[in-house]
Amino acid sequence: MAKERIKKDSEEINNYKHNGDDFIVDIYEIGNYQIQICIKGPDDSPYKSYLFFLNFQFSNEYPQIPPQVTFMNKIFHPNINILGYIYLSILKDDWRSDYTIYTILMKIKQLLKEPDADNSFFPEATSLYLKKKLEQNFEFEKKAKDWAQKYAIFN
């Protein structure tokens, strides 16, 4: 069942991509239970103009169990740790079997635009992000852009 669902979800992503969703650049099948997706940083974020790769690792129980999703590029973000693991509630306790890969991608897009400071996964990034919100400090954006320039692909 997992393979069929992954295939169906991949087709859904390709439909959105071909209908003008420019957040999703490409999707690559790596193996039976693994895909990689190239995304473009959202326009209203410090990641604008950069491409990032996400790795989706599925169990044979997908969609009953969420995939493990990681960034393959380093990214300076409060909810993504140095190893690329993402803190996103729908990948943990709030998972529902009717969620698709596209649902996850849209949640990641939202997270890139609006980090969740209450669920920090990278303390340094969270500290700078909170400072930005309180003091109109731009250190977070600068460091996020610096990391994007260093570890992501300029588009």
UniProtKB/TrEMBL annotation:
InterPro entries: UBC. Signal peptide: none annotated. Residues 1-153 form the UBC core domain. It comes from the Eukaryota. This is UBC core domain-containing protein. It comes from Paramecium primaurelia.
